[in-house]
Structure formats: structure tokens, C-alpha cells
Design goal:
With 169 residues, the protein is α/β, with parallel strands linked by helices. The protein has one domain: Cytidine Deaminase, domain 2. The protein contains three helices and seven strands. A seven-stranded mixed β-barrel has the order 1-3-2-4-5-6-7. 37% of the residues are buried.
Length: 169
């Protein structure tokens, strides 16, 4: 797990404001896309670890934990993260002074927009990064979070960082 920069002292909270921007390093996006390709034609899933900066609405992803898709029947069009993996990730994040800020999953052969099931099962305050993967392996991603009323997922901006900038030391 990557450690936060020394100057990163913003207070984190389990209750986040309205969706705005999620910041994630290019190498983490690559890991998610590799996971999606490895699981194709089934959905992959995982947990985003980081910190929310409440005053400016930016959620910074420091690391991620790829999980098994625990959905019965293989998970061709849905995903489920086992509760034990969730609790393990929560403890690992807490040990680093971070927290679970969201989840990712893939949509094999489907656009990176939330399904009705994604809307129905989303938790308020978390980001949902969805990676679309086609038969030819092309990937595209977008991120979503529940609106302030907790009824619909709306798009969050994604700021992808590279090199030594952003969330890597």
C-alpha cells in the first residue's frame, strides 16, 4: 500500500459531500484495467483505498485491493465483494490512516455507466469506478457517486495523475 505524502493532513470522514472529483494515479487505473481483462467475460471488482478531502470535494485514491467476485453463478453481469474481504480492506486502510472511499468493477461488453442494479445497491458517500471492456480488450472508465438525496448515481470527475505528481511519492 502506498503511503500518503507528509503534507497530506486533511481530515477524513466516512460521510462525504456531494460527488465532485476522484484523483487516481495512472498505475492504479492500469491495475484495474488488467484485472478487468483477466476476468473477462466476467465482472471484476475491488476496493478503492484513500482519503476524502471534505472542503474541496476531492477523493484521492492511494491504493486499491482487487477482490474475488463472490457473486453466485460467476458474475457475468453483476459483482459482489465478500464481507470478509471488505472488513480486511477496511482494517488495512485504517492501519495506514486511510479509509475505503469507493469500489470498482467492470462491465464486460457494456458501457461504463451504472446499471439499475448498480443504482439500487450503491452506498451513499462512496465512489463507484466502472470500467467498460470490449471483446477486443479496449477499456474505458468513468466514476459515479450517489446524489445528495441518495437516489441516483451521478458522474464524478476523474483526475488521472502520472509520474511523481498527485497521489504517489
Amino acid at each position: 500500500m502506498m503511503a500518503p505524502l507528509e503534507q497530506d493532513t486533511a481530515e477524513s470522514s466516512r460521510v462525504f459531500g456531494p460527488p465532485t472529483v476522484i484523483e487516481i494515479h495512472h498505475s492504479l487505473i492500469q491495475r484495474i484495467c488488467r484485472h478487468a481483462k483477466a476476468c473477462y467475460p466476467y465482472e471484476c471488482c475491488g476496493i478503492l483505498i484513500g482519503r476524502a478531502h471534505g472542503s474541496d470535494g476531492v477523493k484521492i485514491v492511494w491504493d486499491l485491493i482487487s477482490t474475488e467476485n463472490a457473486e453466485a453463478g460467476g458474475g457475468r453481469d453483476r459483482y459482489l465483494i465478500d464481507g470478509r474481504e471488505f472488513l480486511g480492506a477496511d482494517k488495512a486502510a485504517d492501519d495506514q490512516g486511510l479509509e475505503i472511499i469507493g469500489f470498482y468493477h467492470s462491465h464486460p461488453g457494456y458501457p461504463c455507466i451504472p446499471s439499475e442494479r448498480d443504482h439500487a445497491l450503491a452506498w451513499h458517500g462512496y465512489s463507484y469506478l466502472i470500467v467498460s471492456i470490449g471483446e477486443e480488450g479496449k477499456t474505458e472508465y468513468r466514476c459515479w457517486a450517489l446524489d445528495k438525496d441518495g437516489k441516483r448515481l451521478i458522474e464524478e470527475g476523474v483526475r488521472e495523475t502520472c509520474g511523481d505528481e498527485g497521489n504517489l511519492q
